[in-house]
Amino acid sequence: LQREHVVALETRPANVEGRGRVTVRDLVRNALRMRPDRIIVGEVRGAEVLDMLQAMNTGHDGSMSTAHANSSGALIPRLEAMAMMSDDSMPVDAVRRQLAAALDIVVHVARAPGGSRTVTEICTVTDSLRLDRIA
Q: What is the pairing mode between strands 64-65 and 40-41?
């Protein structure tokens, strides 16, 4: 985004000597040091989901991210599984509390037959992690 007060951070692979790698987890943790109003992570695919949830639960309302799941209903278990990939040992019920506190809505997007993407479902997330379809 070419906007005032927007800082873009990007991952990068290690160099040929195996140094200099920057992961999404590194970026989320460093973004928190910048005192952001919100954090937008392009995609969570692994243990960084736990860092993203913790960021969302520390006063960064309006933060958002994307994740791949087969349906809206499949997202919560997928996020739980990704959070459990973290080296930080956290019981699954604690992960669920983090999810319930952090998530407000889930928007599911699917590929249409012509190749374009379309919103197929919008759900609110309840405190018990139930999804209520609103559109």
A: parallel
Nearby residues of 26 by Cβ (< 8 Å), 6 or more positions away: 11
Check: pTM over 0.90? Answer yes or no: no
Q: Are the C-beta atoms of 104 and 67 separated by less than 8 Å?
A: no
Q: Are 105 and 122 in contact (CB under 8 A)?
A: yes
Query: Which of the 8 DSSP states describes residue 99?
Result: H
Q: Which domain holds residue 66?
A: 24-103
The reply to whether 41 falls in a domain is yes
Count how many domains the chain has: 1
The three-class DSSP label of residue 50 is helix
CATH of the domain at 50: 3.40.50.300
Mean pLDDT in runs of 10 for the chain (135 residues)? 84 96 91 90 90 88 93 96 85 94 96 95 97 95
Q: Give domain status of residue 78, yes or no.
A: yes
The first and second tokens of residue 111, run together, are: 């590929």
